[in-house]
Amino acid sequence: VQLVESGGGSVQPGGSLRLSCVGSGFTFSTYYMAWFRQAPGKEREGLAGIDSDDMTKYADSVKGRFTISRNSAENTAYLHMTNLTPEDTAMYYCAADPRRKTDESWHDAFWYMFWGHGTQVTVS
Predict the structure, then answer these.
(1) What is the DSSP string of 43-101?
(2) Cβ contacts of 16 within 8 Å, gap of 6 or more
(3) What is the pLDDT along the chain (124 residues), one digit of tens a residue?
(4) 48: CB partners within 8 A, 6+ apart
(5) Are 14 and 84 in contact (CB under 8 A)?
(6) Which residues make beta-bridge pairs with 2?
(7) How far apart are CA 3 and CA 41, in angstroms?
C-alpha cells in the first residue's frame, strides 16, 4: 500500500491550494479516505473525511473553507483549501482505512491503517 501526497507549498494569507493523494496497492474505491495535518508541537488533527459513497465530514476548524473529494477511477483523493491563514501552516497527511467511520472515529488518527509521508503547507 502506498499513499503519495502532492500539491503543498507556500501561499499568502487568503490564498488557495489543492492537495492530491494518489493511492496504490489497495482497492481505493472501497476505502475511507481522510486528510490530517500536524503543526510543530501539536497533535495530528483530522480535517476532512470521505467514504466510498462520497459522504463527507469536516472539522469545525476547516468547515466552509476546505473541500474533500475523490476520484476513484484515478485512485486519487483531493483537499481543496481556500481562504488560508497562517494557522493552517502544517504538514498535511493523507490517510486510508478499510473500515467504516463514525462521527467519533473519522477524525481520530488511531483508526487509520495507511498513511502518506505528507506535504508541507506554509501560509505567510
Answers:
(1) --EEEEEE-TT--EEE-TTTTTTEEEEEEGGGTEEEEEE-S--GGG-EEEEEEEESS--
(2) 80, 81, 82, 83, 84
(3) 999 999 999 999 999 999 999 999 999 999 999 999 999 999 999 999 999 999 999 999 999 999 999 999 999 999 999 999 999 999 999 999 999 999 999 999 999 999 999 999 999 9
(4) 34, 35, 56, 57, 58, 59, 62, 66, 67, 68, 79
(5) yes
(6) 24
(7) 24
